[in-house]
Design goal:
There is one protein chain. With 329 residues, this protein is of the alpha/beta class. The chain is 43% helix and 16% strand. It contains 10 helices and 9 strands. Strands 1-9-8-2-5-3-4 form a 7-stranded mixed β-sheet. Helix 3 (58-74) packs across helix 4 (83-105). The chain is globular and about 55 Å long.
Length: 329
């Protein structure tokens, strides 16, 4: 779930249309600097790259400034600089996250420094061979869960992604470890065959991972609005439709980078999600509101680690018509 960006024509442009740039080449160089000299020299070289990146990417820069302003209004006590200095720190955290992805798949990340909170709920489910759906976010580093899971072969994950906009970065991860591309399913469109495949995986006690904080890749995305950082923002309903189809428990998963490692947090969300037609829209609103509340809670703990560099609060043209209510995005 990498996200490397280039300027978009307008702030409301869909995130999937914001493609990668030669930033990947710079990350290759910075990765080499880290391997030879360590993280502080990496950081010294990172900031000039980020300054260039911010100048060339007004949409991403504006999105960062808007998001951080909302965080400061919500939590004035947080020490987040205003203006471009705050955005620069935000982009720096993004650069550190990209480095961590490379370190994880390069076998250089200290997995012994990863703290797991709430992991017992997943451990118990795995022991009972009871699969489930994990709803993740673009907070922190999803790759952490995938790589850490290699030490627990009984935990099998299938991650639903849309990474066609970041092909160069993913090729770079594949060069570090070909396993980085395993167990990924592109979900620009969810077909019946894909739904059957996922149901079979859950029935075997495996877990499906899907992001809950990005508008679907669709001309008329199926979303519902919920309060997030003091304003209504669109959230996809696909994770909840998928959970109802799979008839399995649903959990939330968050990750955060710490000074010398990282944390993984698992939370129970719903034992089962049922969506009766007459109550569907109300239930979508309740589910999205609960998810948004937990996302906000974790974002306010490490606000610089939420990496959605586009106008998250822009309201897309939506579709919740009966004709397409059965295919989650």
């Amino acid at each position: 779930m990498s996200e490397t960006l280039k300027p978009a024509a307008e702030s409301g442009r869909h995130w999937a249309h914001i493609n990668e740039v030669s930033f990947v080449g710079g990350m290759r160089l910075l990765f080499a600097v880290f391997r030879i000299f360590g993280r502080w020299p990496f950081r010294l070289m990172l900031y000039p790259v980020l300054l260039w990146y911010m100048v060339r990417n007004p949409v991403a820069r504006a999105a960062s400034l808007d998001y951080l302003a909302r965080v400061r209004r919500r939590r004035p006590d947080l020490c987040i600089p205003s203006g471009l200095s705050g955005a620069l720190r935000h982009f720096a955290a993004f650069g550190e996250s990209l480095l961590d992805k490379m370190l994880l798949w390069g076998g250089l990340f200290p997995l012994d420094k990863v703290t797991v909170s709430g992991g017992q709920i997943v451990t118990d489910a795995v022991a009972a061979k009871r699969g489930g759906l994990l709803i993740c976010t673009h907070l922190g580093n999803l790759e952490l869960c995938r790589v850490a899971g290699r030490n627990h072969p009984e935990l099998k994950l299938t991650v639903l992604v849309h990474t066609k906009h970041a092909q160069a970065f993913n090729r770079m991860l594949a060069q570090l470890d070909p396993r980085s591309q395993l167990d990924l399913i592109q979900v620009t469109e969810m077909t019946p065959a894909t739904a059957v495949l996922l149901a079979e995986k859950v029935a075997r006690g495996e877990f499906v991972v899907i992001a809950g904080d990005r508008v679907p890749v669709s001309p008329r995305p199926r979303v519902v609005t919920a309060d997030f950082l003091g304003a209504e923002a669109p959230f996809p309903v696909g994770p909840y439709v998928l959970a109802s189809l799979l008839e399995c428990p649903t959990y939330l998963m968050f990750s955060q980078r710490t000074r010398d490692g990282a944390t993984l947090c698992f939370e129970p969300f719903r034992e089962q999600i049922s969506l009766p037609r007459k109550q569907r829209e109300q239930l979508f609103s309740e589910l999205a509101a609960d998810y948004a509340a937990r996302l906000e809670h974790h974002c306010l703990q490490t606000p610089l680690q939420w990496f959605n560099f586009y106008d998250f609060w822009a309201q897309p043209q939506t579709s919740l018509s009966p004709d397409n209510r059965h295919a989650p995005h």
